[in-house]
Amino acid sequence: MWYKDNDPSQDMIEYRMTRHVFGNSPSPAVATCGLRKCVSDAEEDVKSFVYRNFYVDDGLMSFDCSDEAVNLLSRTQTTLKKEGNIRLRKITSNSLDVIKAFPQEDLAKEVTGIELDLSEAPLQRSLGISWDISKDSFTFQVTSTRRPFTKRGVLATINGLYDPIGIVVPVTIRGKLIMQDIMSSVTDWDEPIPHAFQAKWHNWLESLADLQSILIPRYYVNLPSSEVERTELHVFSDASQKAISAVAYLKIYDVSGGHHVSFVHGKAKVAPSQGQTIPRLELCAAVLATRLKDTITQHLTVHIDSTTMYTDSRVVLGYINNEHRRFYVYGNRVDVIRHSTTSDQWTYVSSEDNPADIGTRSIPANEIEQSAWIQGPSVLRSEHPLDHRETSYELLDPEEDKEVRPVIVTKMTSASQETVIGVHRFERFSTWRSLVRAIARIKRLAKSYRKSLETRESLVTPVTTSNLLKLSCLLYSKFNRHAFLVRLVLLRRGENCTGHVLLSLSPILDSNGIMRVGGRLRQGRKYTCLEIHPVIIPKNSHIAGLIIHHFHERVHHQGRHITEGKIRTAGYWIIGCKRKVTSLIHSL
After folding, report:
1. Domain residues for 557?
2. What is the CB-side half-sphere exposure of residue 168 using CA atoms within 13 A?
3. 455 by DSSP, 3-state: which?
4. Which long-range contacts (CB under 8 A, 24 or more apart) does 322-327 make?
5. pLDDT tens digits for range 273-321
6. Same domain, yes or no, for 344 and 255?
7. Is the same domain home to 234 and 338?
């Protein structure tokens, strides 16, 4: 919005761009959206070419033959011109047939006028990558401009070496490690760095000139897709105290039985300077390899028949194959690995055969082209790699591993009716007194084992009267719970025992949970508590017989009336006591 006729005294007017603005933050997204809109109704191969192989206004594509390239490019030109008035130009190729198929105004200026061969064609730059058309290989252009020896200048130099697919990662990681050391110095971003770092930095900086002489083939294999029998993806990971790294290769088998190994993608990251163990870093490297695999399978149009992941850490393999133990912190990283890969895809490789090891320790720039990082490891180049692959990996010393949670075993002891002191066990006693004393000894024994040897009581100490009363209450509670369980529940809820023989006794529960006789005698003061609220004893229980025999002996066998009265006076109410006492006396 701005003033009409650029006059602040006039009204504000809303202006609208009629051309695509270059340099704005959303400009790349607007350009991509416009291109895709133009081919939204086009043929499928044209649509796929623009959608998958264009980045803003640069398109890169590989074809099996020149005719396919010319045909697709011509149809894409026509579609973009018709639908969006967009001119597809600056065409270049490593094939003269493709270049000659288009008019000079549609070609890149570097290949304009070439008639016989491409040997004199200069390097092409696309998406920051230098492409030698004559040799169909990627190379690097290193600027000779020296930036100030400050933190800002060092960082700018490292980031100025554009390497999106990780061809020279073993070289650039050296610069990043130097940068990590420099960051430990207490200097501002634009202050000179201490001279202690100067020698290492200049040595690395001078070695970058050797990158201009390396040539990395653009193609994975110089074969038409119709002659490819099988394609395998192999991803390696490794870690050191300084860095983690991952690198991927394609192993392609042709119809004649031969095989070819080609570098696909590589990555490396500087490890934290402290607080990390080697197993942790190896696990981080495995995560990096997993994400590298995901990126390749998502963007590579080549059909991959199988994927194999490698690490030289048996600890990490144990983590990945683990099904039972849990981790403190790094369980999420194992989940990332297991979400994208299966444990069967992971296998062990020795450090000597692991090319990712190169990415963690760095090598000079003049060695990168012939190194295992680019050429692939010997285990892939052989006819039968890793025939001795292991099928399972266990956790290594899980009890000593600080990353693995210890196993906490919780044991529960359940007691059945046969293992606790139930009322059925009381049937082994023939007298009330022997039953009470046996229970007293058991409780004393259990209590003494909770104390030290010096303070334990002797089992031969006589049982006191107070202890006998407490044990009697325990026995009553046991028999009440056994005989009147449902009625006890009703009483605890405050409900009546409707339709039961207990209803006439107006039962109540005392503070020990023992069922006693209720009634109106509670208002009387001349009676004892035991006489007012005697304990209710079921008539068919073994304890009822023991109590009757006990008090029958106490009254010296004087008959039913006196025995029954003694029982009532002692505080017991045996249901059907009259008949029970008569029956037991006549059986003696």
Report:
1. 462-587
2. 30
3. coil
4. 322/395, 325/395, 325/398, 325/404, 325/405, 325/407, 326/404, 326/405, 327/403, 327/404, 327/405
5. 877 788 889 989 999 999 999 999 998 888 899 999 999 988 888 878 7
6. yes
7. yes
